[in-house]
Structure formats: C-alpha cells, structure tokens
Write a structure and sequence with these properties.
Number of helices: 10
Largest sheet: 8 strands, mixed
Strand content: 15-25%
Helix content: 25-40%
Structural class: alpha/beta
CATH architecture: Alpha-Beta Barrel
Order of helices and strands: EHEEEEHEHEHEHHEHEHEEHH
CATH class: Alpha Beta
C-alpha cells in the first residue's frame, strides 16, 4: 500500500469550480467535494448504466452525467484545506473505480487530506474486506457507501452481475454492507439505489425499508441514460413515480411510516400510511425532494440538467417548486 498519494485525481466539475481549480458558473454549489480515483483505464466492473464500465464506449472523464477533469493531487488537497477553513465545503467524498491497487490509492488520498485538515470524509467504493474498512476507519474515514444500485437481486444480476458479465455478486454486496455497519456503526453506512432500472415502486420501498432496518442509509438516484453505456437508450423514470418513492423514503428514514403501513396496487404506491393533512404538510416542506446522501451532500445536477426537471433538488425547493411537485404527484 502506497504511503504517498497518487499523483493525479479526478474532481467533479462543480467541485473543481468551488475549489478554484477551474473557471465556470454554477447556480448550485456543491457542499461536498467529490473526488474520483484516477486510473488511465476504465473500471474493471461492467455496470450497464455507467460510462466508466469496462465495456462502455462513453467518455472516460464522465460518471453519471458529470464531467470529472484531472488535477494534481497535491494541488487538490491544498484547495480542500483552504475551502474547508473558509466554510465553503462540509465534506469530501472519494469515489473509487474498481481496479488493481485502488485501495492503496483511496487510503493514500485519505492520509493526504487528513494530514492537512480534519474534514469529514466519505468513501464510495466496491465491496471491501472488513480488514480494509477497519484501516479506513483508523485513518479517520467517517462513512462508507457500497452501492447496490439495483433494488432487487434480479436487477442487480442483470445490470451489475453475471448476467451482464460483471464481477459483482448480490450476496457479497450485502455482506460488505453488514460488515461496514459493524465497523462504522448504524447510520454511518450508505448505499445507492438507482430508481428506474425496472423495479416496481413496491420493490423500491421494500429495499429502502430493509436498508433502514439494518442501519444503512439508502441514497436515491434517478436513472440517467448516458451515451455509450449499455443502457444509453433506456428511458428515465417518470417524475410522478420518483416523487412517490421520494416521499416514501422520507417517511421511512424519519420513522414516520413504514413499508407495512403503506399500500400498493399492482406495485404502485397508493397509500403512504399517514393522514392526508400530515402528508401535505411534509410535502410542503420540500424536504423529501432534496438530494439524499451523507450529511452535507447535495450532489448538484448529478441526475439532471439545470433546466430540469429536477429529480433531486440540491437546495431547498421554493414555493414555485413545491407547487410544481404537487402537480406532479397530483396532490
């Protein structure tokens, strides 16, 4: 394992602007700095929705719809220190491709950042061994995210696993998540769920409930078709369906309702298990529709273009936004 940080690291374009590494205008600044491990080749995994997949012909500098330019690691860590001291950022999220030596790169990046500033750090990565997670915890990593992405085992196998010539196994991801809870504690482990891969709303709500019951925070993403990926021609989820799942997510993660109290008709969510007045009050706060993830994560325009429609709001929705949301879910 390398004791020095890798020479290069990718930085999301929004983060690079906030850090002053490049010029540009953004109307919603990221409150987390998003880094991506640099590898001259693509990821060894083959997730059907990802431009970094081994068989994707998508751009090598993209993840979801975000561009990730490359910078010298030392310069990036210097700018992170300055931005955190100014109060411009709240956290660093290191996202890891899957390749030989990636754990050494991740742990070295953590050391490099922590040697300058004690900022909260999250790691978003492939399943790690429990001993590796323990090393990250000792280095000061606060949270780990291991992405299921798919809401069901079948969809996981189809788009991340053996049905798509991918290396990942559902059971191994589940075990790694449970190991992570043991190492980092309940509430300090995250997974990603991509809505729009073919799951029903009921299946999405079931896995959200399972995650919460196990002490794992499920972060919602809307499927985004990216040119060059195997799913580049697939349609995005309907905004109406996504909004219902967002509301269910909020109710479950805030212990207001649960899957057993909700009702479904042919897989479609028709009753949230709360009184209508309470439901409307919660909707009008706008909170269920904000980006979900680690504390301080707002992930601006990761799933959508600024002109909309916004699946995940990077800031508190305004009154006009709330009225549009209410029209979308017909309330």
């Amino acid at each position: 394992m390398s004791e020095s940080s890798p020479e290069l690291v990718r930085v999301s374009l929004g983060s690079a602007i906030v850090l002053g590494l490049t010029d540009g205008f953004i109307n919603a600044k990221p409150t987390t700095v998003y880094l991506l491990t640099y590898n001259p080749e693509k990821c060894s995994a083959n997730c059907a929705f990802c431009p970094q997949a081994s068989r994707s012909s998508g751009r090598a500098d993209m993840l979801s719809r975000v561009i990730w330019p490359t910078f010298r690691t030392l310069k990036v860590t210097e700018r992170i220190e300055s931005a955190y001291r100014r109060g411009d950022i709240r956290r660093v999220c290191i996202q890891a491709l899957n390749y030989r030596g990636v754990f050494g790169d991740v742990s070295s990046l953590v050391r490099g950042i922590k040697s300058r500033i004690n900022i909260p750090i999250s790691i978003s990565c492939q399943p790690l061994r429990k001993e590796e997670m323990e090393i990250l915890a000792e280095l000061g990593v606060e949270r780990v995210s291991i992405a299921l992405d798919a809401c069901t085992e079948y969809l996981f196998r189809r788009f991340k696993g053996e049905m798509n010539d991918g290396p990942y196994v559902w059971e191994s991801h589940i075990k790694a998540l449970m190991d992570a809870v043991e190492v980092f504690g309940r509430g300090n482990v995250t997974t990603h769920l991509i809505i729009g891969l073919g799951e029903s709303e009921e299946e999405a709500v079931k896995i959200i409930q399972w995650c919460v019951d196990k002490g794992i925070y499920p972060s919602l993403f809307a499927f985004t078709p990216i040119k060059g990926t195997l799913l580049g021609d697939r349609r995005r989820p309907s905004i109406e369906s996504y909004r219902r799942i967002q509301i269910a997510h909020y109710l479950i993660t805030h212990s207001i309702s649960n899957h057993k109290r909700m009702r479904f008709d042919s897989g479609v969510l028709i009753d949230f298990g709360v009184e209508r007045d309470e439901l409307i009050r919660i909707i009008e706060t706008g909170e269920p529709f904000r980006t979900t993830g680690c504390p301080g994560c707002n992930r601006p325009y990761y799933n959508e273009e600024p002109r909309g429609p916004l699946y995940n709001y990077p800031m508190k929705p305004g009154r006009v936004d709330i009225e549009e949301i209410k029209r979308q879910i017909r309330i």
